[in-house]
Amino acid sequence: FDSVAKSYNDLVQLSSKAKTRPHVIIGMPYKGVWYLPPGDNYLAHFIKDAGGDYKWADSKSTGSLALSFEAVAPEALTADYWMNIGLVNTRKDIESNDPRYASFKPFKTGQLYNNNKRTNDLGSDDYWESGGVNPQTILADMISILHPDLLPGHSLVYYKQLP
Question: Cα–Cα distance between 113 and 83 in angstroms, integer?
């Protein structure tokens, strides 16, 4: 545990040197509701620790924030990155869910990253299996995405950029 904690904390220190804090949007609506992690959620902590900015970082909740498309869209329109997008593998998959997504800045710029790089043919996703005991690897992926200059030799493990 100590080596994982040290690696994680070293990465947090590295990301603190970033000159910018890119704005990140998470997820995609499900049945008309956009479920977002509140500020005390592990994913919000990952974004902060990776040197990102997250609109709902200060929100408090014991579960997900259940918001409408209209509440999240203004943030998504100007976000720098869209991450953890759900059960999609391409930009076409995203747009087929709702054509309005094509107007989001990260969609237009191609800054779409999903945490399903290591999904096997049966649908098992290693992000959810080994990621929990390797937070330093998830954090390294996120830093590499948000601040590629900080980890120039890093190859993404759990994340992939969507074509």
Answer: 5
